[in-house]
């Protein structure tokens, strides 16, 4: 039974690796685009929980959780050099990522295999990944028994040219749809795209950043121990018993 009313969501999108195909980092030949979807109520809870961790360890909410800085104990995260602080922080961060209510949609590209199959001049892989995320988002939203849904997509600014290109790609996607989702279906959901600066300290974008890297590591070395991915995979969009929220190309 479909309930009356409207439900609002946030989809925060971040990436791991770069989407260029010309110069590939041999140590990290992968690109991952990752979206974390929250209802507005669940996002409020997750944001407050993340802020509580920030206040406990730094005394305020101003620090920005960035996966690479945490891993390298860099900048504000130099406090993690202390093993007791590091253990306490990582335990609480893990509990946050386990206990928060969000759904993950991600698309990853193995660059060398991708070039071998399609060549370096193929369509922008960022656009390919974004199309998949939007498509699976629609499938997920369709199953929610509410008459009307609205999704605000938030992406961190990357630069004027890059953001303009992404905005153009997004608008084209809304106009023509994807292979499996019609433009009418996309417009019915009420998708809107917004860019935010890193210094605005958007906790949802930090969630997406923390989720994206473990997925990239999983794609690179699926058999290696990856405790962070073990947490993330429990939040992947599942449908008919399958991981519908993750696509790896090729």
UniProtKB/TrEMBL annotation:
<dbReference type="InterPro" id="IPR024524">
    <property type="entry name" value="DUF3800"/>
</dbReference>
<dbReference type="Pfam" id="PF12686">
    <property type="entry name" value="DUF3800"/>
</dbReference>
<protein>
    <submittedName>
        <fullName>DUF3800 domain-containing protein</fullName>
    </submittedName>
</protein>
């Amino acid at each position: 039974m479909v309930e009356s009313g409207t439900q609002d969501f946030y989809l925060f999108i971040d990436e791991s690796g770069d989407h260029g195909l010309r110069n590939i980092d041999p140590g990290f030949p992968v690109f991952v685009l990752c979206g974390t979807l929250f209802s507005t109520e669940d996002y409020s809870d997750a944001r407050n929980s993340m802020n509580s961790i920030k206040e406990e360890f730094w005394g305020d909410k101003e620090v920005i959780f960035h996966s690479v800085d945490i891993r390298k104990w860099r900048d504000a995260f130099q406090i993690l050099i202390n093993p007791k602080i590091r253990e306490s922080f990582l335990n609480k961060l893990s509990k946050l990522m386990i206990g928060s209510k969000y759904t993950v949609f991600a698309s990853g590209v193995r660059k060398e295999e991708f070039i071998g199959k399609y060549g370096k001049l193929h369509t922008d892989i960022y656009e390919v990944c974004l199309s998949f995320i939007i498509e699976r988002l629609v499938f997920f939203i369709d199953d929610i028994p509410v008459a009307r849904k609205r999704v605000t997509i938030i992406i961190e600014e990357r630069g004027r040219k890059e953001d303009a290109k992404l905005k153009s790609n997004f608008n084209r996607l809304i106009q023509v749809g994807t292979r499996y989702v019609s433009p009418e279906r996309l417009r019915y959901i009420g998708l809107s795209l917004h860019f935010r600066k890193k210094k605005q300290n958007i906790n949802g974008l930090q969630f997406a950043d923390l989720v994206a890297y473990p997925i990239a590591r999983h794609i690179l070395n699926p058999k290696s121990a990856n405790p962070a991915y073990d947490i993330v995979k429990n939040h992947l969009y599942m449908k008919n018993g399958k991981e519908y929220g993750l696509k790896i190309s090729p």
